[in-house]
């Protein structure tokens, strides 16, 4: 695994008022008493595109709370082909096996959209989780939402067209970003969906001709979200509804007191 942290910024050097953890919804939901326990141990790190932060069967050392990055959880077959089971952005965290008891995972975690994340050493995460406070409740609720995303992705990949899968992926990805511009190639998207590049090319071409997206090499821009939502299968709405049910805004955006 390559080195991630040559440019990392240690947040333990920052006064409490300068933390920008509000970019991650789970961290932003914590009251001051719980956040102050975690704060000195959070490190803001750069996650470059394509970086593998977890490998199958390897003991996880850190949890990651993405802010501007998006991480893809996916399985790699013996043939080398792969498919995404879920994506994780500023709504969640990567590394649920750290508090679920497994310690390792059979999937990989690869950076899909470059950006930043807060990382937390596994011992600190487990210690705070075992205290039974709000962090424990948030992580368990998030895990249920993540499981919904995984199961819905499996069903979507089996039963829906490549165009519908692409619409789902574009909507979920843009939901996690401050802009509608994605720096990503068709080859990468094909790997996420587990389909041939030609299928993504055809689907992206259909959406571009309909005025819903603009594609140029290495960039995809969402131009018409409402149009994508009309073409997408029900899987997008199912994932969004479950996330909103389990982690509603009144929990995620409480004032830290």
Please give a structural write-up.
The chain has helices spanning 25-28, 32-38, 97-100, 122-130, 134-159, 162-175, 186-193, 197-209, 225-231, 235-246, 249-252, and strands at residues 9-10, 43-47, 52-54, 62-66, 70-76, 82-88, 108-113, 115-121, 181-183, 213-216, 219-222. By secondary structure, the chain is an alpha+beta fold. The chain is globular. The model is unreliable at 1-19 (pLDDT under 50).
Alpha-carbon distance between the two ends: 40 Å
Number of helices: 11
Q: Could you say what the CATH architecture of the largest domain is?
A: Sandwich
What is the average per-residue confidence, as pLDDT, rounded to a whole number? Answer: 86
**The top level CATH class name of the largest domain:** Mainly Beta
């Amino acid at each position: 695994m390559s080195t991630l942290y040559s440019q990392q910024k240690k947040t333990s050097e920052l006064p409490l008022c300068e933390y920008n953890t509000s970019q991650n919804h789970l961290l932003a939901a914590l009251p001051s008493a719980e956040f102050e326990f975690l704060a000195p141990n959070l490190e803001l790190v750069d996650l470059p595109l394509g970086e593998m932060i977890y490998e199958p069967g390897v003991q996880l050392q850190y949890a990651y709370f993405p802010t501007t990055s998006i991480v893809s959880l996916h399985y790699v077959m013996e043939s080398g082909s792969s498919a995404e089971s879920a994506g994780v952005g500023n709504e969640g965290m990567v590394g649920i096996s750290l508090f679920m008891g497994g310690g390792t995972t059979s999937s990989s975690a690869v950076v899909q959209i470059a950006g930043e994340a807060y990382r937390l050493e596994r011992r600190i995460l487990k210690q705070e989780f075992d205290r039974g406070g709000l962090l424990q409740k948030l992580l368990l609720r998030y895990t249920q939402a993540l499981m919904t995303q995984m199961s819905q992705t499996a069903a979507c990949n089996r039963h829906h067209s490549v165009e519908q899968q692409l619409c789902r992926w574009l909507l979920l990805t843009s939901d996690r970003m401050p802009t509608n511009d994605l720096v990503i190639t068709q080859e990468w998207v094909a790997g996420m969906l587990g389909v041939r590049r030609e299928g993504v090319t055809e689907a992206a071409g259909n959406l571009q001709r309909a005025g819903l997206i603009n594609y140029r090499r290495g960039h995809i821009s969402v131009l018409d979200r409402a149009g994508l939502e009309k073409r997408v299968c029900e899987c997008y709405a199912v994932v969004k509804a479950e996330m909103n049910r389990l982690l509603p805004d009144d929990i995620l955006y409480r004032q830290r007191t």
